[in-house]
Amino acid sequence: MAKPKNTITEYRSYYLPMHFPVLLLSGDYWKISDVPSGRLHFHNCLEIGVCHSHSGYIEIFGEQVLFREGDVTVIPKNVPHTTYSMPGTESHWSYIYLDPKDLFRNLLPATWQDHDLTGCAQGSFQPILSRKKYPQILDLALSVIRELEEQKPSFQISAKGLLLSLYIEVYRIQSSAKNGGGAADQEKEKAPEAEHKTENSLVIAPALNYIEENYMQQFTIEYLADLCHWSPTHFRRVFHDIMGTSPLDFVNNTRISKACHLLGSTEESVLNISETVGFRSVSSFNRYFVKIMRMSPRDYRKQILKSDRHAESQSVLEYAGWLYPER
Predict the structure, then answer these.
(1) Which of 64, 71, 130, 138 could form a disulfide with 191 if both were Cys (CB 3.0 to 4.6 A apart)?
(2) Greatest CA span in the chain, whole angstroms?
């Protein structure tokens, strides 16, 4: 038997504002091709998608799951997946990205451990919530999108309340399915080479989670490898296969992405920002910043302050075309 080809898996790092960790991608531009991309991707935050038209498939957990117009998708962080439409169509979507742990920090009880639904993301998890079975989910998601698009006075407060209601509804559905309280409503079929596609895709999640929460601290690659119960050599090899970069470069990329937000949203000095995001020296920070962003931190700050529109566009790292729907 021929060895299956290695599948490219992309990590898409969406940096969400600290005061309101929510990002909306919507509009006529967000249409998904009918051609499977041949690669999976995963995020550093929770994704909620709304399909406005047509149908197609999401590949997730080694299966193809059918979606239709009006369905809402829920993809926890660090879960590889990809989406494509039925032949001859382009499904139209809106996407909400959020960090429930930060957004609902003072609203959810301390007993809620799975703030991002990651703990539910196996077995009976339902990535697609159909309009027919869960009409309240679609209504809430559309209300959130409308608030974020119209931005009327106090829209963030309103959107936060709607998102909390939406999140609780989703949490109830997933918890019920996990405990055998209801049958999954997806139509599933095996995708070619699906088992191979998801191989090793989640095994570095402990390291990714640790980096996201502790990027400002000093830690070794050996420590990250130990979190995944691997030797450093094996960890480096698997990490590079999945992420397309080394663990060290990924850590520094994460720190630079956090620095970009601070440069655009605060008046802190470059020195203070470099220390805040975990660099031991400002010279090292400057070197990595220029390498990744193609400009100095000071030039970046000047550019980001030129217009509110440009500042908004930098809320997503524009690496590898991550701002664009897959074609």
Answers:
(1) 64
(2) 62
Domain boundaries, the chain: 8-190, 203-313
Domain boundaries 8-190, corresponding CATH code = 2.60.120.280
DSSP state of 118: G
Q: Is the pLDDT of residue 157 over 50?
A: yes
Residues 202-221 have a mean pLDDT of 89
- CATH among 3.40.50.261, 1.10.10.60, 3.40.50.2000, 2.60.40.1180 for 203-313: 1.10.10.60
d(CA 17, CA 39) in angstroms, rounded, equals 28
Confirm if 93 and 38 have CB atoms less than 8 A apart.
no
Is residue 309 helix, strand or coil? helix
Q: What is the pLDDT of residues 236-288, one digit of tens each?
A: 998 888 777 899 988 998 898 888 878 877 889 999 999 999 999 999 999 98
Nearest of 59, 63, 55, 64 to residue 32 by alpha carbon: 55
Alpha-carbon 290 to chain mean position: 25
Whole-number Cα distances in Å, 13 to 23, 62, 322, 323: 12, 23, 9, 11
Residue 230, by phi and psi: left (phi above 0), alpha (psi -120 to 50) or beta? beta
The length of the chain, given as a count of residues: 327
Does the pTM of the predicted model rise above 0.70?
no
Judging by DSSP bridges, how do beta strands 81-85 and 56-60 pair with one another?
Answer: antiparallel
* CB-based contact 80:202 (threshold 8 Å): yes
Alpha carbon distances (Å) from 275 to 90, 261, 267, 285, 286: 45, 14, 14, 9, 12
